Structures are given as C-alpha cells and as structure tokens.
Amino acid sequence: MADLITMDDLTNEEIVELLDTAQRLLPVAKGDVYAPLLQGKVLGNLFFENSTRTRMSFETAMKRLGGEVLNLSSIGSSVAKGETLYDTMQMVNGYSDIAVIRHPRQGAAQYSADAVEIPILNAGDGAGNHPTQTMLDLFTIREAHGTLEGLNVMLVGDLRFGRTTHSLSHALVRFGATLMLVSPKSLRMPAEIVSDLRARGKDVTETENLSAEINSADVIYMTRIQKERFPDEDEYTKVAGTYKLTAGDLDGAKGSMIVMHPLPRVNELCASVDSTKHARYFEQAFNGVPTRMALLCRSLGIKVPKKVA
Q1: Residue 2 resides in a domain
Q2: Terminal-residue alpha carbon distance, the chain
C-alpha cells in the first residue's frame, strides 16, 4: 500500500518501472485486452474541484482493470452541509480500498493520507502538486523521444499557480532536463521551486519571451492562465491572453519537437496546432489511463505481469 502525494514519493527507478508498466497496460487501456487485475477493489474518486480528464481517466483505468468506482464531489454530498474533510475521509476509508483526491486547498492530499489507512493518490491540491499528471506527461515525452534524459523543455504560461508544472519541473530535472520557464513576471515559478531546481545543478532559464526559444525546444508544455486561482480579477485581466501558440510559430521547430498541454485550453493554444505533427495533447490526455492503471496497481500492491494477456 503506497500513497502518491508528490513526485518525491517516487525514486527515478520507480518512475521508470511505472512507465514500463503503463506501456504493458496500453492494450488494456485501449479496451483491446481485458485484464481484471483489480477485480473486487473499489476506488473512491473524490473531486472537490472541477475535472474532466483526471476524474474520467481514473474511472476508466479502474473499470478497465475490473474494479469499481465511487464518485464524490462537493455538490450532492454532505460536504455541502459542512462536513469536514476529516469526516469525509473517514467515510471513504470504510467504503473504498483506495482513494483519489482533488482539492482546492494545498496540502489537502497529505492531510487526507494522514487521516486514513487506505492509499491516497493526489489528483491536484490547490496550487501545490499534481503527480499523477506528471506521470502521464513523462510517459508522453518518453513515447515521443524514446528517453527522458537530457531534453530541452519549455514550460509556458501560469507557472506560479500551475501545479502541473510544479510537479513536472521537479521530475524533469531528475532526468537531466534543461528547463526554460516562460511566463509573465507576475506568474513566474515560485522562487523556492526555482532555487530547488538550480540546487540540483540543472540549467534553468526564466524569460517572458516565448518565440525566442521555440526552435531549440524538444518539448513545449503550454498551460492555461488559471482565472480561478487569482484572488483579484483585475490581476487576471492584466495577464490573460499573454501567450498564444499558433502553427506558424512552429515553422522553425525541430521535427521531433512535441507540444503538450494538460488541458483544458482557452486561448493560449490555437486550434491550428492540432493538425501539425507536433501536437500531442490529446494523446497526452489518453495516456492518463495506462499510467493511472499502473499507479493504482502499485498503490494496491498488485503486480502487473510482464505479459498482459
């Protein structure tokens, strides 16, 4: 039984092993093979913030592996009546074998893990971390480039509140990536994260200029400027629409370069990019199924066979 709250809960070797497991589970994720490895197990899907891909991919992953899912949100549950997170988690502990939680409060996933005996997977805690997204991001990168080692990666947009980039940046530098952090000044990556990345001896560049570095990138990871994270709507208005990547911007890009996005997109990623050879974001979203299958099996102590029949 193992929680996953931040990427620090996984060693590099465990990350690679999980990616290899996800690769073996691809036929199951696609529905071509049925492997009821989690039959008789119940997943509690606890989403106190809106979600499409994370919630649905966890549900798909569990059901493709023969398990069952209980879905809970703040709407339609006793949370709306004032039930505390602690009390909610006690109920989930009794009803489920494992739980996934997304919550607007940073630290809520760790709090939940401390409150219960079942394993907890962090599906996003405020502006904190999103390690299961990082795993599918790493899977997508490795599928495209054949490696995670020594790549040039641009992280673009809301790096201050963007939990996907917080978790991904930490993972990438562990595999020797060079990072280019592209954002408005007000949305820079938190200084403590940048300091930690640089303390690992990695090359980290901060800039506001998106176009200057496109041609040297192996990965461009676009993110939405998140209106819901801003305490002041006027501050959001000042930076909304700062970046917009179009197909024309990619004319000089490496042929192998991929464009990623955790989705949903608003106006920072033009639909014209969809038809280019660089677009990987819809494939990236699907990759949440095999990687989350691998994570569910790991947390429940279920060994995935070398050949999934």
Answers
A1: no
A2: 25
Predicted structure pTM score: 0.91
In angstroms, the CA 281 to CA 8 distance is 25
Owning domain of residue 138: 131-284
Distance (Å, whole) CA 181 – CA 174: 16
Q: Are 147 and 54 in a shared domain?
A: no
CATH of the domain at 89: 3.40.50.1370
List the structure tokens of 120: 């907890």
CA distance 219 to 213: 11
Contact, 35 vs 28, CB < 8 A?
Answer: yes
Is 75 inside a domain boundary?
yes
Tally: H helices and E strands in the chain: 11, 9
H or E segment and range at residue 283: helix 281-286
* 264 shares its domain with 290: no
Tell me the pLDDT tens digit for each residue of 48-104: 888 889 999 999 999 999 999 999 876 555 665 678 999 999 999 999 999 999 998
Neighbours of 92 (CB within 10 A): 23
Residue 164 domain-assigned (yes or no): yes
